[in-house]
């Protein structure tokens, strides 16, 4: 220890203070050491062992049991005092059906695991059978009876990783976005691709053509509005351009069934605001009911 002046110039009080400094450091070190010894002793008694795991938000099914099993396997015989909450949370979040997890210690013997589960939105077929996919693109595992109401999406075998993996194929990601955006009034049973892009088929067999995955919420809102006003023989509603939806019904519209096909002169010039006329089709086949 350095002193700012010669010892002979220090007063008795200063010398006592200088002597107390190393003694204080020594005392602090002893307290810390005793504390560590005490913690080790407490751990050795098993007083703070992990005896109970409480799972919150698992959403039913067997997720809660799998989470609890994973936590016990991760903590082992570790005391509550030595547990690394981040490591336990990471182990739980690695489970296919768990999106994120948060760990809290409730002394003396309980770990509380708050789980945010993945949301299953679709199924797809793989060489090993049907699997369930989450809105995030994660593969949740084999389809069970509870997944039978989910739409089937189109995919190639190479697009779908194993359970716990995440889909990255852009086409499948877009299909999952449509599946995740579906509502009660538009319950899709199948989602795939047509000539003009993404298509969802409802339980009634009506195609909802959305084009790409942009503005999905708006497109589906428009589709619902159009279908509410339509008859019962709808083949498809096209909302690729949501401001100009297109409806095709199975039966001919009596107002246009006998109308002559338009001449080239009638449709010449800039008709971009009228949509695209299907070459060779009669007005009855190409009727486009536009709703404001």
Q: How does this model look, in words?
A:
- This protein is α/β, with parallel strands linked by helices and 292 residues long.
- The chain has 3 domains: 1-33, no CATH class; 52-117, membrane protein fhac (Ubiquitin-like (UB roll), Roll); 120-274, Rossmann fold (3-Layer(aba) Sandwich).
- It is built from 5 helices and 12 strands.
- The protein has helices at residues 12-45, 63-75, 85-93, 170-181, 216-229; strands at 52-56, 98-106, 110-117, 120-126, 129-134, 139-142, 152-153, 188-194, 197-202, 207-211, 234-238, 246-249.
- The strands form 3 sheets. A 6-stranded mixed sheet has the order 7-8-9-10-11-12, covered by helices on one side. A 3-stranded mixed sheet has the order 1-3-2, covered by helices on one side.
- Strand 9 and strand 10 (207-211) form a beta hairpin.
- Helix 2 packs antiparallel against helix 3.
- The longest helix has 34 residues, at 12-45.
- It is elongated, with a radius of gyration of 34 Å.
- The model is unreliable at 31-39 and 264-292 (pLDDT under 50).
Count of domains: 3
Largest sheet: 6 strands, mixed
Radius of gyration: 34 Å
Could you name the ranges where pLDDT drops below 50 across 5 or more consecutive residues?
Answer: 31-39, 264-292
């Amino acid at each position: 220890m350095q002193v700012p002046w010669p010892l002979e110039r220090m007063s008795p009080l200063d010398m006592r203070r200088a002597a107390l400094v190393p003694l204080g450091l020594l005392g602090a070190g002893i307290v810390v050491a005793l504390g560590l010894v005490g913690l080790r002793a407490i751990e050795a008694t098993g007083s703070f062992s992990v005896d109970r795991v409480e799972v919150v938000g698992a959403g039913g099914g067997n997720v809660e049991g799998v989470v609890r099993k994973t936590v016990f396997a991760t903590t082992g015989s570790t005391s509550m005092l030595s547990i690394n909450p981040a490591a336990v949370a990471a182990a739980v979040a690695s489970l296919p059906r768990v999106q994120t997890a948060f760990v809290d210690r409730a002394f003396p013997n309980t770990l509380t695991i708050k789980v945010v589960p993945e949301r299953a939105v679709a199924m797809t077929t793989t060489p090993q059978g049907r699997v369930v996919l989450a809105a995030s693109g994660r593969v949740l595992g084999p389809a069970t009876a509870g997944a039978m109401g989910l739409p089937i999406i189109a995919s190639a075998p190479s697009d779908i990783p194993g359970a716990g993996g995440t889909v990255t194929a852009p086409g499948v990601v877009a299909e999952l976005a449509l599946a995740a955006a579906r509502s009660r009034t538009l319950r899709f049973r199948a989602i795939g691709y047509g000539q003009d892009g993404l298509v969802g088929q409802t339980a009634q067999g009506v195609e909802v053509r959305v084009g790409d995955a942009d503005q999905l919420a708006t497109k589906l809102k428009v589709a619902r509005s159009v279908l509410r006003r339509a008859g019962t023989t709808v083949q498809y509603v096209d909302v690729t351009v949501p401001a100009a939806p297109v409806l095709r019904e199975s039966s001919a519209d009596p107002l246009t069934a006998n109308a002559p096909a338009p001449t080239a002169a009638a449709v010449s010039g800039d008709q971009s605001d009228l949509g695209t006329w299907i070459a060779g089709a009669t007005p009855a086949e190409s009727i486009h009911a536009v709703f404001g």
